[in-house]
From TrEMBL:
Family annotation (PANTHER family): HISTIDINOL-PHOSPHATE AMINOTRANSFERASE, HISTIDINOL-PHOSPHATE AMINOTRANSFERASE 2
Residue ranges of coiled coil: none
Gene3D superfamilies cross-referenced by the UniProt entry: Aspartate Aminotransferase, domain 1, Type I PLP-dependent aspartate aminotransferase-like (Major domain)
Name of this protein: Histidinol-phosphate aminotransferase
UniProt GO BP: L-histidine biosynthetic process
Lineage, opening ranks: Bacteria, Bacillati, Bacillota, Bacilli, Lactobacillales
SUPFAM superfamilies in UniProt: PLP-dependent transferases
Domain Aminotransferase class I/classII large: 3-190
Molecular functions per Gene Ontology: histidinol-phosphate transaminase activity; pyridoxal phosphate binding
Pfam families linked to this entry: Aminotran_1_2
InterPro entries: Aminotransferase_I/II_large (IPR004839), HistidinolP_aminotransfase (IPR050106), PyrdxlP-dep_Trfase (IPR015424), PyrdxlP-dep_Trfase_major (IPR015421), PyrdxlP-dep_Trfase_small (IPR015422)
Organism of origin: Streptococcus hyointestinalis
CDD domains per record: AAT_like (cd00609)
EC number from the UniProt entry: 2.6.1.9
Length: 210
């Protein structure tokens, strides 16, 4: 990533076995546009490009529209974030017939576990009531944007997020902020041993009535 936590696709030029990116990214929340993804796919037509869209329903545009043009694209989704069903461990993939056929041929040899009937039933119920989840995601995104603006007004450096979390650098030392919040039983993510983000805090966004 760049110093602004942007993924630089120019770094992907050259031979490799495949490409996997999270869009929006974890744990920055930064989003790559469809135009940028299109250029990446065009530049790597001979390899699989996997786009993890775990957070896409909190903001941004899905890459699903690109599937008809690029059979090297595979999109992964999860019910853990936007549907709040992390305990079910349910997800799915969307791709060309060619890629799906390869997965069908090998999945029983590599799957650590299969989806049980209870998880399948609950995930199906979530899809059938997706209007509720869309509304919830919009509320979460609204809280995220409101929270980001308020942090910026306080002089924090806020990374623009399209996910359900915010990465921000406080004016004070991060350790001081983390400990002060912890004393109030407010728990945020803090990575003192990770050099690039040791001065940042991670905040999870939720619904709120303001």
């Amino acid at each position: 990533m760049t110093n602004d936590f942007e993924i630089d696709f120019s770094n992907y030029v050259g031979e490799c076995g495949g490409i996997i990116i999270a869009n929006p990214n974890a744990s920055t929340g930064r989003l790559k546009s469809l135009d940028e993804l299109t250029e990446l796919l065009r530049a790597h037509l001979d390899m699989v490009v996997i786009v993890d869209e775990a957070y896409i329903n909190f903001g941004g545009q899905t890459a699903i529209s690109l599937l008809d043009k690029y059979d090297n694209l595979f999109i992964t989704r999860t019910f853990s974030k936007d549907a709040s069903l992390a305990g079910l461990r349910v997800g799915y993939g969307i791709g060309s017939r060619r890629l799906i056929a390869v997965m069908e041929a090998v999945k029983n040899s590599v799957n650590p576990y299969a989806v049980d009937s209870l998880a399948e039933t609950l995930a199906t119920a979530a899809v059938e009531d997706w209007c509720y989840y869309e509304k919830t995601c919009q509320q979460v995104a609204g809280t995220r944007d409101w929270f980001s603006r308020n942090l910026a007004d306080l002089g924090w450096k806020v990374v623009t997020s399209q996910a359900n979390f915010v990465l921000a650098k406080p004016r004070q030392t991060t350790k001081e902020v983390f400990e002060a919040l912890e004393r109030k039983h407010i728990y945020v993510r803090y990575f003192p041993k990770v050099e690039r983000i040791k001065d940042y805090c991670g905040f999870l966004s939720g619904r709120t009535r303001r």
